[in-house]
Each structure stands twice: as structure tokens, then as C-alpha cells.
Amino acid sequence: MNSGDARKTAEGPAYLSGFGNEHASEAVPGALPDGRNSPQRAPLGLYAEQLSGTAFTEPRAHNRRSWLYRIRPSAAHPAFTRSGDGAIRTGPFGQTVPDPNRLRWDPLPEPPAGTDFLAGLWTLGGNGDAAQRTGMAVHLYHANASMDRVFGDSDGELLIVPEEGGLLLRTEFGVLHAEPGEVALVPRGVRFRVELPDTAPDGGRSPAARGYVCENYGAHFRLPDLGPIGANGLANPRDFRAPVAAYEDVEGPVEVVNKFCGHLWSATYDHSPLDVVAWHGNLTPYVYDLRRFNVIGTVSYDHPDPSIFTVLTSPSDTPGLADVDFVVFAPRWLVGEDTFRPPYFHRNVMSEYMGLIEGAYDAKTAGKGGFVPGGGSLHNMMSAHGPDRETFDRASAAELRPQKVDDGLAFMFETRRPLVLTPQAARADHLQQRYDDVWQGLERHFRRSDDTLH
Ligand SMILES: O=C(O)Cc1cc(O)ccc1O
Ligand SMILES: [Fe+2]
């Protein structure tokens, strides 16, 4: 293999900084044409190819496309044939009756040896319709082997949230590294391979990689508007990192898997499709370190709605109504006076899938049988939830000194439509059976005169 690899820094691959920027990168000097996208003959004998992420005519502020200069055009491939879908499912989700119950899962069980990222993807549920390009799916993954095939998802962009084990993503645009605490996004259709880097001190294979994926069938994730917050805050654009160009020059059979309208299709190419020597444009994969999130909260009283924690949003056609939001509960100070500080009791018109990357979440008791890293909870539209009894008791009695919440990293995929489970999620052994019990014992404290409660 002749690999034009990315320039490396001491910590890992080199990156280009900024969300949605017009970037340009070449792995070989002179590979990018000057002053035009499609010269009569592209430099170095490369093929020019455009990859669009939005309709050509969408407003400039949202328009996404990149130009790729590659050893072979993507068109040079044989026919795809259907392969098994494994545990991957796609909207529309109609195989279970939508469930109004509060649900919680333990982490995915250990997969058989030799399970790569694609084979380890397991769909929990979702909504909308991939063919209508609206809605989303929640997947989890548990893998213990690097892919040697290449994957591209025509149904949506993939927001990958590692929880255990780092991932090396070799993409058409270059190499990305995502550790737990970071997220990676691969745009719709971009081909990539997920490798599990050797992280064990003895140079052995890292034991496993586990995490979550939001497959977004709708509009690209973008940064939320900041409104009165001002020009800065939440996720800062410069903290998003795109890869520098890096290519594989591989002649020989490479399996390429394409997810298209819910099914996996496979073709054996006679070369690697990760053969982009240079590219420019604003449609790129990227990584973001969630610990860089600039958390904003109250400095007076009350618990702000969690929209204040939105990292990325995929808007619908209705202003302010997201198809899906990606929200992070990052380390922060709590200072609210005369305030119940954890998340309040609520019933939400949006549906909430929550995951835990590490530690504990401030509305739920940690530990075995509770909300644990790698597990997840689903609070569908209008289902009543909030702090569990232990949290309610503790927070109602706590002395309200400034308090640093820095013992965990939780996130939420919040979506406009109820999430419908796959049969495998509805019947999973790792679905907790007694989640409702966390709200048992919330006794009545009501007295007609309010002199006893506090
Ligand atoms: O724990 C949850 O349910 C998520 C959540 C957090 C919060 O701070 C306020 C509302 C909400 O739904
Ligand atoms: Fe909630």
C-alpha cells in the first residue's frame, strides 16, 4: 500500500479548524487546481468530482458541497448487490407499537470476536423516513475489530459519540481521531473506515470500542443560533476540526458497503475509494471535543431549559423546531439561589434519548441497575420524568453553596417525533425491567399551610 498519510502532530492527525468553513487541503503539493473547480485536465492526472450535501440552489448560508480530486472517479465501480443488514434498521420504524413508557437500557453486551464497527451497529429506534430525508435513528455500537471494508451511508449523516475506546476514522477527506468525550460527524455518503487504534500499553489490540450514533436523515447538523446570548458561546466554531487530505493508493479488492434507503449493499472495488489526494469545500467530516463546550447557565435562580446546552441542531421547516438536537451536559458550576438545581420534573413535547459517556448524570442515581455509561434512556413525547426519588430528596435538602458538577458527561438526542423502538430494543435482555421504580416513593408532602415542608 502506498499511503499519502496526513501530516501528523505529536498528538495525532493534523486538522483544519472551523465549523462549516471553506477549507482546502492537498496531500500532494499542486493537486488542487488553481482558480477553477473543473479544469480541462485536473492536476497530476487526478479526476475532479463534486460531492453535494445540499440541493444546488439552497441558500448560500446553508449550502454545502466539496470538490474532490481523486485517483479514480467514484463512478468507477461495479454493481452493488444486497448484503445482510445485520442489526441496522431504518425509518420508517413500524415494527413495534410506539411505547409511552419511560425506558432504560444497560450497555450493549459484548459482541463476538472479530466484530467491526459496521457489524457492531445496533439500532435502538428512530422516527421519520430516510427516503423522505427527515427524522433520525438512534444506534449503539460495540466493536472489537477494525474494519477492513469501507462504508458510506446514503441515508443520513452520522454523529458518532464514542463512550469507550477511541476510533480512527479514515475518510475520503483524511483521518479523524475521536476519543470518548469527543464526537465525530461523517456527512451523508462520505466513505470511511473505522479502525480501533492500538491503545493497550503492550501494543496489543484495544479491547473494545463502544458508543452511540445519531443517524440524521434530515438537514445537516449546524450550530444553533445564539440570540441574546450574543456572538460567542456554546460550541465555538473554531473548535470543530476537519481532517487534512490523506489518501490511499490501493489497487486490489476492497469491499465497499453502501446503506441506501434502509438496506446494506456491497460491491467489491478494484481499488480503495479513499483515494482523494486533494479537496476543497465546506462539506467535510469533523470532530469536536465536548469538553470545549462553553456551558451557559443561570447566575441567579431556576434551572434553565436544556436547549441552552445544544451543541448542534438539525432544523425542521418550522423555525425553532428541531428535527433533532444534540445536547451535552458538560461540567459546569451550579449557583442558583433558592433553586431545585437538578433537572426539574417535566413532560416534554419533544422526545428524549439520553446517553452517558462517563461518570454520572445529575438527575439520576448512578451505579449498577441505574443510568450507567454506555446505557441509555428514552423519555418519549409527553412521558413524565425528571429526578429520581433519591435525587429529589438530596437536592431538596442540599445546602445551596456554589457547586461544581464535574463527575460526568451525558448527552441527549432530542427529537420532534416520538422514537419508535426496533423489536430488538423492545425485547432486549439489557432493557431494564423496573425503571419506573426510580420514581416510587415520591410521597405526598402537601399541607394546607406551608409551614412544614422545607
Ligand atoms: O434529564 C432530562 O430529562 C433532560 C433534561 C435536562 C434538563 O436540564 C431539563 C429538562 C430535561 O428534559
Ligand atoms: Fe427530560
Automatic annotation (TrEMBL):
UniProt lists compositionally biased (Basic and acidic residues) regions at: 1-10
Transmembrane intervals = none
One Gene Ontology molecular-function label: homogentisate 1,2-dioxygenase activity
Where does the signal peptide begin and end?
A: none
Q: Name one GO biological process term.
A: L-phenylalanine catabolic process
UniProt cofactor(s): Fe cation
Question: What residue stretches are annotated with the Homogentisate 1,2-dioxygenase C-terminal domain?
Answer: 291-446
Extract the Gene3D superfamilies matched here.
Jelly Rolls
Keyword Ion transport carried by entry: no
InterPro entries in alphabetical order: HgmA_C, HgmA_N, Homogentis_dOase, Homogentis_dOase_bac, RmlC-like_jellyroll, RmlC_Cupin_sf
EC identifiers of the protein: 1.13.11.5
- Work out whether the entry's keyword set contains Iron: yes
Q: List, from the UniProt record, the residues annotated as the active site of this protein.
A: 303 (proton acceptor)
Positions binding homogentisate in this chain are 346, 361, 385
Q: Which reaction does it catalyse?
A: homogentisate + O2 = 4-maleylacetoacetate + H(+)
Q: Where is this region: Disordered?
A: 1-42, 80-101
Query: What interactions and quaternary structure are annotated?
Result: Hexamer; dimer of trimers.
The record's family statement is: Belongs to the homogentisate dioxygenase family.
Describe the function of this protein: Involved in the catabolism of homogentisate (2,5-dihydroxyphenylacetate or 2,5-OH-PhAc), a central intermediate in the degradation of phenylalanine and tyrosine. Catalyzes the oxidative ring cleavage of the aromatic ring of homogentisate to yield maleylacetoacetate.
Name of the protein described by the UniProt record: Homogentisate 1,2-dioxygenase
What organism does the record attribute this protein to?
Answer: Streptomyces humidus
